[in-house]
Amino acid sequence: xxxxxxxxxxxxxxxxxxxxxxxxxxxxxxxxxxxxxxxxxxxxxxxxxxxxxxxxxxxxxxxxxxxxxxxxxxxxxxxxxxxxxxxxxxxxxxxxxxxxxxxxxxxxxxxxxxxxxxxxxxxxxxxxxxxxxxxxxxxxxxxxxxxxxxxxxxxxxxxxxxxxxxxxxxxxxxxxxxxxxxxxxxxxxxxxxxxxxxxxxxxxxxxxxxxxxxxxxxxxxxxxxxxxxxxxxxxxxxxxxxxxxxxxxxxxxxxxxxxxxxxxxxxxxxxxxxxxxxxxxxxxxxxxxxxxxxxxxxxxxxxxxxxxxxxxxxxxxxxxxxxxxxxxxxxxxxxxxxxxxxxxxxxxxxxxxxxxxxxxxxxxxxxxxxxxxxxxxxxxxxxxxxxxx
Amino acid sequence: xxxxxxxxxxxxxxxxxxxxxxxxxxxxxxxxxxxxxxxxxxxxxxxxxxxxxxxxxxxxxxxxxxxxxxxxxxxxxxxxxxxxxxxxxxxxxxxxxxxxxxxxxxxxxxxxxxxxxxxxxxxxxxxxxxxxxxxxxxxxxxxxxxxxxxxxxxxxxxxxxxxxxxxxxxxxxxxxxxxxxxxxxxxxxxxxxxxxxxxxxxxxxxxxxxxxxxxxxxxxxxxxxxxxxxxxxxxxxxxxxxxxxxxxxxxxxxxxxxxxxxxxxxxxxxxxxxxxxxxxxxxxxxxxxxxxxxxxxxxxxxxxxxxxxxxxxxxxxxxxxxxxxxxxxxxxxxxxxxxxxxxxxxxxxxxxxxxxxxxxxxxxxxxxxxxxxxxxxxxxxxxxxxxxx
Lengths: 389, 389
Prior knowledge:
Two copies of one chain form a homodimer.
Chain A: E1 5-14, H1 21-30, E2 33-43, E3 54-56, H2 59-71, E4 79-82, H3 88-104, E5 109-112, E6 117-118, E7 121-122, H4 128-135, E8 141-142, H5 146-153, H6 160-173, E9 178-185, H7 188-193, E10 213-220, H8 233-236, E11 246-253, H9 262-273, H10 303-327, H11 339-344, H12 346-355, H13 364-368, E12 381-382
Parallel strand pairs in A: 1-2, 1-4, 4-5, 5-8, 8-9
Antiparallel strand pairs in A: 2-3, 6-7, 9-10, 10-11, 11-12
């Protein structure tokens, strides 16, 4: 653990449970990063509980913190992660500091998670959307969900051409080199487009319904820079030359129920494991296991799809353990979602939420990659024909 | 890692560096605790830099957070840690919630670190002192420094009788069962009182000056409860019967320079490793190594001195690594303290502070106890004759 990489994380803080910074910072620290932690809100718990205490950090407070950090020469991250920022004024303050950081250090690896909403519902102020659009060109990686891609690109994605169009907008108009969309419900048109070569993970049961799967897609603009980056040579020789991006995909079994903080955890893993200038497997800054991808052509990885594979594997494993734990609770603490009953008795929802907080602490071995191997990693498969569809 | 213990931590947050919650929460999480994190301030960096941004959490904000946590049934810790709380109003809000928690759950293990000042200088508002005095009877453990003991007991400690008097006030008047004072400069009268049996650690160089040592003292009221607590039987048979407490002590080599957050880290380890109802060595909630104390009479441990031994060992090891790292920095980042030069050029101090931030992330193996054994633990030695002096 000799290398000291500093990562600046700007997202929410909750006292209880694991969303935002509380889902991301512990894993990042376990994986060897010194993390500077800016809290955009200080809440008692996440909004899913229905009843929330605490306050937002105002744009003025954020600016004051950034200013003093800068004066003290403490603002020198090599990586940056931004997540939940509740309003446009605060987001603009963050935008200004990111602009400045990026100008001063062009090598900064910035993962922008445009946390705006899910499943057609905004949970931040609507005027953050244009600010996020301004910020996209600063990002090295973005990790929106399906709905957030639609918001950022003004493109409802209903078929392969509209999905392609949305990705093109992100890559070309907004100049984002790396896009990942995770937790996508496997719509029939997506399944139909998916090549058979992107095989489901080892533990697949053939009889499982397609509704029992979620889908993860990564799209990466890879700059070929010659011998210096041996991990890129496979890509150089592939069919993808002339295509706007290298697309990978993977399916994971859907875990029933709604869990909070999963996206925040996924982003933390993705940023941790992304090593653009290091051959695969990564010489990580940490003592983590970093398995070698299998040699079959569909498993050829870009540095980005490699990081997405590890992020997917670890996030899914922690989610499975969390689900297992939540099933072990007394029945009254795991009553299923029922809007009418939940309204009548708010504690019904609160107890369900509590039982579904990510089991990060109990599963820190998963974070560190203990036992992770080539065989049990959920590899992103290369989607050769993506742009030909 | 099956056991889920919840710990509520109420102390400061800084964006950059490791003091308060930033020094305590990561170690607590590594050691298997689910930590609920209440931030009493949200600062850019610790006060030692001279230039600080950010805001305090008001008493009203704290009360709102506690209220909602309670309404959501999320306030159910088995352990409690309170540290830096900047003013009497906020401290009173914390006092009220601690009172309530302690009434509801008498088994709550509460470590109160009365962070008020150091070396004769207060760095919180003076009116917190009486509030801390009110809170002392709620505590299972207190971890004041030398100056804070003097403040809490109104007793300047200048010789053995005044040290005994101060401890008696804490144990008898304020009903605190476990007191630890660490980082005590080894004054001549202390050294003179110390029995030769409390041997210096293995790596002692006989020629080292006494000024090169710090001293740690623990004092514990042990309730003998029979066969159910086998770890206590040694104490039952010892000379200490009739004495007000069992006192242990240890010396550690002084590491030159001032490091921040050391007390906060020590408290986190102390609370993590304190298992009052479990025989030594502890069946910890975590995967940590918990060595068996040597069998010599001076090494007989109470559950509290056992925890203090591990806390001392791990804190000292991390501090040594931090010091080693700070020495590796370019000269302009490690210029020694010099008040006049520091005033002329504030960045001189800032750079020194930055280089001395605890190297927690790089040394997480120490936190987990990797390689920790009976032989390399800095055992607290039993000070048999303490009350006879």
